[in-house]
Amino acid sequence: MPDRATRLNISATLASVGVAATLVALKLWALAETEALSVAVALADSALDLMMSLGGLAAVIYAARPPDEDHAFGHSSAEDLAALGQSAFILVSTAAIAVAAVLRLASLEIAPLAAQGRGIAVLTLSILLTLALLAWQRHVALRTGSRVVKADSLHYLGDLVPNLGGIASLWASAAFGLERLDSVVALGAAAFLAVGAIRIGAGAWDALMDRRADPEVVSGVKALTRDFPGVQGFHDLKTRTAGSRIFVNLHIELEGGQTLDEAHAIGAALKRKIIEAYPNADVIIHKDPV
Q1: Which domains does the chain have, with CATH numbers?
Q2: Is residue 1 predicted with pLDDT exceeding 50?
């Protein structure tokens, strides 16, 4: 049976999936009613949210499973494959929206917007649901330390920008007849999403190519090892990431005259110390005589 931390993490990711699915349905309806490109950007963003939330839910469930015979290091690389697919999806979506926005701006005819009030109501509801989800995710992250939940929370925090932009463009259209502002807002929001998608895709690519962990993590592991009692030196520190996991491989140098039990106790204690500092770390320590 999953422990309390796993249950909390699953509850947070399930809430994320539920909110994202609700917002996709609402924004599809709002797009059909308003024909506003700024709403289309908000819809694309919510669709990305839904895929990322589903990936996060799968990651949390997989994280609770031990490695098996075919996957000795676990299944966390599936997160990176999913992230690459998500990045490609959002880049294609934002490119299509940007092209449509440019064509509208270049056209002599102004594309009229409709039902702006309904669109504003949907986007306002989207903001309220997002804020409620962020509150629950923060509550869970503080108690479990889940990096998946933290990352999902940061992503939803960024989602407030397209929704606010959509509200601004719809209001300007209804109040002042500034329909072209919708295309300008859509271009800005699409660029904002594209930058985020490229960042996510680059991180996933680096992980799949076994790039080393964040330099701060590497420095932290070195500091913990250098100052650890009984460790007289270390070498061959290698790190890589896969999904939310960090893999650490390290050789420590110990006094050769001590017993195997003593050497093992030092290595095991150091491993616990590293995992305490980096809960998602998978640590392998080799013990060498000085």
Answers
A1: 4-208 (1.20.1510.10), 215-289 (3.30.70.1350)
A2: no
